Amino acid sequence: MEYNSSSDDEWDSFLLESPIFKSRKRYWVHELWQQRDDSGEFQNVCTVIKNYPSKFYNYFRMDISTFEYILNAIKNDLTKYSNFRRCIEPEEKLAVTLRYLSTGMSFRALALCFKMHNTTVGAIVYEVCDAIWNRLSTTHLSIPTPEDFLSIANEFNVKWNFPHCIGCIDGKHIRLRSPTHSGTMYYNYKHFFSIVLQGVSDANYKFIFVDVGAYGKQSDGGTYASSTLSTFINNENNLPKSSNLDGTSVEVPFFMLGDDAYPLKHNIMKPFSKRLLSKEEGIYNYRHARARRCVENAFGIMVSKWRLLHKPIETTVDNAIKIVQCICLLHNLIIDKEGQPCAQTLISAASSYENDRNEKNVRTNVIRPFNRSSNLATFVRDTLKNYFISPIGSISFQEQYANVQK
Q1: For the segment 108-145, what is each residue's pLDDT rounded down to a tens digit?
Q2: Mean pLDDT of the chain
Q3: Per-residue pLDDT reduced to its tens digit, 325-342
Q4: Cα–Cα 20 to 30 A to 357, which of 7, 40, 47, 382?
Q5: Which domain of life does this protein belong to (predicted)?
Q6: In which element (H, E) is residue 208 found?
Q7: CA 27 – CA 38 distance, rounded (Å)
């Protein structure tokens, strides 16, 4: 075929009509995916259950208003345009992602439900998790200021009778499919592959800090030592200045509450060793455990709601990190929008977390690098111990429960 025109427009027209160009424009879509608008789960279930609030909550693990709040925040990031086919709408992308997080279904299983390719499901999940984190983390999981920490400490004192506490810290192993070329770095003492989620909760079961991605083989104390949280807490400018305990002239710093796996430091309190425990130390340990239950409940509530955390996450480590961060953010967001969990939820959460706690307590041969406590840290804990048995700091039922714990 001869083509003699020098016009750019004519040359473009020639290319558009050529067989080579046309063959590249063809897109093959499986006939099953072509049924999405007619028989996909989004069209047949998700849009219908909006008329049934309780069914909607069970399906998405949140109220309709919370779903709409998230959608409005991220829909501009999820909107795509194409001249070749109808793009998946932001609402359907959010629905796919929430079903993945709440059920733990594989990408392949969700692909059949929503009538789309499993690689499309994966791409949607990562895209939505990124969008949720980027748009909403500063609102629902921002790093506290010194003024925020003072408010948190006041709530711990009022609700849990533990003064100067700015948060409770703990770690949780998040199951992974064996990462490629990782050796044993992600293989933990529970004998599965994992990354560590280290979280700090406030007095209302919300996370105020999360650090995701440490190697599974690390202990909680080792994870903390190498974390951004440790760097942040050790910078005294980030915390409120030391102040007197209520009703006393004794000045103590503000601190977090950890378990036995953490070091005793002036900004982290841990329980007394249970060996040769005195009555006063037993009371301190009870008060410590009572307040620290907040982080245990926070993890338990989150795990019971987002069932993906019950099984290995079958993605790369980087994608698993963004998924877990998104789940932590959703945990906070739902509490902010829907209020505190009910008593039955807390009972279920405590039961869920206790399974992890029992496994953690039977750990053996774990190296604890933090075995020397500073004089200030010891002074702070002893001061609290004495405060809790004083008329000012004691609570009426502490001896009864302290005896049970011993």
Answers
A1: 999 888 888 889 999 999 999 999 999 999 999 999 99
A2: 85
A3: 999 999 999 999 999 876
A4: 382
A5: Eukaryota
A6: strand 207-215
A7: 20
* DSSP element (H, E) containing 169: strand 165-175
Q: Is the Cα torsion angle 180, 361, 325, 146 positive or negative in sign?
A: negative
Residue in the structure block whose two tokens are 């050790």: 234
210-238 average pLDDT score: 89
pLDDT of 261 above 60: yes
Q: Which two tokens stand for residue 243?
A: 């102040």
Q: What are phi and psi of 34, to 5 degrees?
A: -70, -15
Q: Give the contacts of 294 (CB within 8 A, at least 6 positions apart).
A: 156, 160, 168, 201, 202, 203, 204, 205
The residues that bridge with 207 in the sheet, in sequence order, are 201
- Among candidate residues 297, 271, 295, the one with its CA nearest the CA of residue 284: 271
**Distance from chain centroid for Cα 313:** 14
Helix (H) or strand (E) holding 373: none
CB atoms near residue 347 (< 10 Å): 13
Instruction: Report whether 37 contacts 29 (CB < 8 A).
Output: no
pLDDT in tens, 9-40: 554 555 455 554 444 444 556 655 555 556 56
- Supply φ then ψ for residue 171, to 5 degrees: -125, 150
Hey, what long-range contacts does 223-232 have (CB within 8 A, 24 or more apart)?
Answer: 223/171, 223/196, 223/198, 224/169, 224/171, 224/198, 224/258, 224/262, 224/263, 224/268, 225/263, 225/369, 225/370, 227/198, 229/169, 229/198, 229/200, 232/143
| 253/266 Cα distance (integer angstroms) | 7
Between the alpha carbon of residue 168 and those of residues 24, 94, 244, 316, the distances in Å are: 58, 31, 21, 29
What share of the chain has pLDDT > 70, as a percent? 80
CA atoms within 13 A on the CB side of 175: 14
Could you give the 3-state DSSP secondary structure of residue 255? Answer: strand
Per domain, the residue ranges of the chain are 30-140, 146-305+341-405
C-alpha–C-alpha distance, residues 234 and 374, integer Å: 14
Cα–Cα distance measured from residue 308 to residue 306, given in angstroms and rounded to the nearest whole number: 6
